[in-house]
Design goal:
The protein is an alpha+beta fold and 198 residues long. It has a single domain (5-153), classed as Nucleoside Triphosphate Pyrophosphohydrolase. It has helices spanning 5-20, 81-93, 97-100, 150-154, 185-195; strands at residues 33-44, 47-55, 67-68, 71-73, 101-106, 110-112, 121-130, 142-149, 159-166, 169-178, 181-183. Strand 10 (169-178) and strand 11 form a beta hairpin. The radius of gyration is 16 Å and the shape is globular.
Length: 198
Amino acid sequence: MKKTSEEALALQQIITRLDGFKPRQRWWRRWVKRSAVALILRELDDHIEVLMIKRADREGDPWSGHMAFPGGRMDRQDVTGLRTAIRETEEETGIFLDKAGHCIGRLSDIVSRPHSGRQPMVVTPYVFRLHTAVSIEANHEVAEAVWVPLRFLMDRGNRETMTWGRGKLQMNLPCYFYEKRRIWGMSLRMLDELLGLI
């Protein structure tokens, strides 16, 4: 597949810089709840896309209906966060990352709140590059899966702001609207760090 030189350069920069990148790791993460997600990149015709999912609406889920990356909580049988990201991606999308691609690096840990309790949760993002075409078979946790072009995210003209509120607290936060889907919060922080490598 033929790519423009700009897109090819962007992908090569991501791969090269991830190789030497030192992500922030929370030293105390082994003592708290942990999750891992997969940022999956694919080359299509003349551009690069990243896979995002829209979480299914579920009562009691604080991230219900949000745009996110495939992933989830680490189980006891998961030896590493990488295995969590691979397993959860397979469960949620039907993509076997071990066969269809490979991990090209990881990004910095992000601290979040778990679904229940006050203890923080550490989320670790891993970046994958597909080398074969895949079909998506979403499970009940996923309302839809969308491939978002990196060039859309790299264009600062597409950046918008949104108002987020909880109780009396109101904040203006950055976001993107891609085909009426809002990308913000933790997912946007991960994308910003990834794109910052270009």
